[in-house]
Write a structure and sequence with these properties.
Layout (H helix, E strand, L loop, with lengths): L1 E4 L14 H9 L3 E5 L10 H6 L3 E3 L2 H7 L2 E3 L6 H6 L5 E4 L7 H10 L2 E4 L14 H18 L21 E5 L3 H12 L3 E6 L2 H11 L4 E4 L2 H7 L5 E4 L25 E4 L20 E4 L2 E4 L9 H22 L1 H7 L1 H4 L2 E4 L2 E2 L2 H7 L6 H5 L2
Parallel strand pairs: 1-2, 1-4, 2-3, 4-5, 5-6, 7-8, 7-10, 8-9, 10-11, 11-13
Antiparallel strand pairs: 6-14, 12-13, 14-15
Helix pairs in contact: 6-7, 10-11
The structure holds nicotinamide-adenine-dinucleotide.
């Protein structure tokens, strides 16, 4: 199969969909790998590294899109990239379609096979291709939250861990999945007073078992959220309903009850955010204030640490990408239910129910379309 790796063009994005080590795996199995010149630069991979791995270096993104049968990317296709897709071409990347009407309309027109990393889901509901970036974003969330709590960054002016004789900052983590757990682990490590909320009691029990009294767990009810946001210095939004729009747990009317200069890092922003007043921002212009509360809504947080993130992402995506290239997408999804859940669109039809529901559009089960 001809596999294409374009350079990412989203603002502040320096990751790349395939490493030279990954390229050599494809080449060893008889596939051709086309890499756009400079695609790996932001992740510290040179064109020569890809050449040495057996890839062909391509001068323009247009040529990569034109020649590749399988495109491997990181972020959702930007409008100019959607225009370059062709019917039947396979796109393997993060899509995050629930909050993105223009993208879904563009991909319906493109009629490509769109496989979204974030909805590849195992039988135990774990998300193997979202998890590596969630670990990065979760750990970063506390790190950026700590910086924005500094007065010079616009925050309240509190030190996350306090000092002897002065209480630490209060960190509230909404959602105790991968992002939430990694955010909490850094916050606990920095000495903050951390409370993590979830609706999944088994998850809260698990967190309680690993952290004991170093972290508080709280059931995520509206009643509890209304109360706890008033005490928070830093709120980290880490909720996910796979494929669907995130529920608004912190509403606009709660903001005036919060401390002035408190910070919200809404990591769930890529699924619409779990804070009503969140909107997507970029690394170039990451924050804004509503009612005196600082909001950080960068939707590609791991893009800021591309060397770590590219390795973590491609460690997880490689085996799925190889299966698609070796067997063809149809056989690969028939052999692997987790990968089948990643197919968001096929031939212009939406094959992910949560995505279709999020937009009030028709859902077409994948199994019916491929006769599985
Ligand atoms: N902004 C970024 O750069 C970035 C990077 C990585 C991941 N993310 C996003 O972060 C979000 C979280 O991802 P994850 O991997 O941790 O997901 P996850 O599935 O591991 O965890 C989500 C958690 O939310 C909980 N939850 C669901 N409804 C809830 C509610 N009403 N109240 C409290 N908790 C609730 C679930 O029980 C689950 O434990 C996703 O939207 C993901 O796309 C964003």
């Amino acid at each position: 199969m001809i596999v294409g790796v374009p350079k990412e063009i989203k603002t502040g994005e320096f990751r790349v969909g395939m490493t030279p080590a990954g390229a050599s795996e494809f080449v060893a199995r008889g596939h051709r790998v086309l890499v756009e010149r400079g695609a790996g630069e932001g992740s510290a991979f040179s064109d020569q590294d890809y050449r040495d791995a057996g890839a062909e270096l391509i001068a323009t993104p247009a040529e990569v899109f034109e020649r590749a049968e399988l495109l491997i990317k990181v972020k959702e296709p930007q409008p100019v990239e959607i225009d370059r897709l062709r019917p039947g071409q396979i796109l393997f990347t993060y899509l995050h379609l629930a909050p993105d009407r223009p993208q879904i309309e563009g991909l319906m027109r493109a009629r490509a096979v769109c496989i979204g990393y974030e909805t590849v889901e195992r039988a135990d509901h774990s998300l193997p291709l979202l998890a590596p970036m969630s670990k990065v974003a979760g750990r970063m969330a506390t790190q950026v939250g700590a910086v924005y709590l500094e007065k010079s960054s616009g925050g309240r002016g509190v030190l996350l861990g306090g000092v002897p004789g002065v209480l630490p900052a209060k960190v509230v983590v909404l959602g105790g999945g991968v992002v939430g757990t990694h955010a909490a682990s850094i916050a606990v490590g920095m000495g903050a007073d951390v409370t993590i909320l979830d609706t999944d009691l088994d998850r809260l029990s698990y967190l309680d078992e690993i952290w004991g009294s170093r972290l508080h767990t709280l059931y995520s009810s509206r009643h509890n959220i209304v109360r706890i946001v008033t005490e928070a210095d830093l709120i980290i939004g880490a909720v996910l309903l796979p494929g669907a729009k995130a529920p608004w747990l912190v509403t606009r009317e709660m903001l005036p009850t919060m401390k002035k200069g408190a910070v919200i890092v809404d990591v769930s922003v890529d699924q619409g955010g779990c804070v009503e007043t969140t909107r997507p921002t970029t690394h170039a212009d990451p924050v804004f204030f509503v009612e005196g509360v600082l909001h950080y809504g960068v939707s590609n947080m791991p893009g800021a640490v591309p060397i770590t993130s590219t390795l973590a992402l491609t460690n997880a995506t490689l085996s799925y990408a190889l299966a698609i290239a070796d067997k063809g997408w149809r056989q690969a999804v028939m052999d692997d239910e987790a990968l089948a859940k990643g197919v968001n669109l096929l031939d212009g039809q939406i094959t992910s129910k949560p995505v279709a529901d999020a937009h009030g559009l028709a859902y077409q089960p994948l199994a019916e379309m491929i006769g599985a």
